[in-house]
Amino acid sequence: MGFFVFGNLLTDPWPWWLGGICIGLLVPLMYYFTNTALGVSTGYGNLARLIFFKTRLKWLHSDAFKNIYNWRFFFIIGIVIGAFISAQLAGMLLVTSDMGRFTQMFAWPFLYQALWFFAGGFLLGLGARTANGCTSGHSIHGLANFHLSSLIATVFFLLFGFLTVHFISFLQAGGM
Amino acid sequence: MSKNLIILIFGIFFGFVLSRVGASNYDMIFSMFTMENLTLAWVILTAIVTAAVGMQVFKLLGHKGYKGIDIKIKKKELTRYTALGGAFFGIGWGMSGACPGTALAQVGEGKFLAVFTILGLIAGTYIYALWLEKSQQ
Q: Considering the entire predicted model, what is its pTM?
């Protein structure tokens, strides 16, 4: 890598340290300007309210979701827009069915691929709520504030991520 | 500037950085877990250290923010379900090659399959709310 030459920050991949510093800075910046804790997963409750608009479930009507167009909603929309800008500046396709190694390893019909990612997302959603946070809320915000629950959550995130990816490699070696 | 506008800008910044650094790249996440390429692990570690230093600065400033707003650190409580939730989440992370933040970034990048990750995330969140309701009855 050498000493990072600021080639083109808008189109070239960033070195890990620059990305890490920028993501880390979001934690104090969000507190400083808006007194909010970096975190994404609770915002899926806002989206659940939008999709299941007739729901009467108490948790989806708790204080966090009094107004579903609150800051969490705007944060989520922002992430999509930011990544869209990044991808377009880098000259990526507008829409692609490619998912890297996954779509190379498994030549499955589209329906199976969709179900696989739905199942993965389902476990992410259920898991994040059960553990009360995700990678940003627990592993970055929580660990930076020395929360024990975040340490335990992060250890289990990584351990089961590791086991799952090795299981996928095993499936692939088996010729699925 | 309204709070929501500031947050929208932070969100755009977050999504842009996640995409630029490769955090929304399936292969980068896969190879972090197989330990072939630890770039993302370094990103996360650097982020934690940077955030931790920032939070220590707040201590020195007396937890006061912009225009004197009070900063309240949100504490995440440990429950007997934290580890179980972490395990579910880890499996989902490995399966989808995304976490709740990077799944949104993948959608922004035009990765069509990530739309299903998002739908799954919404369903999982809904089922959590349903489970909570049933378990409290």
A: 0.95
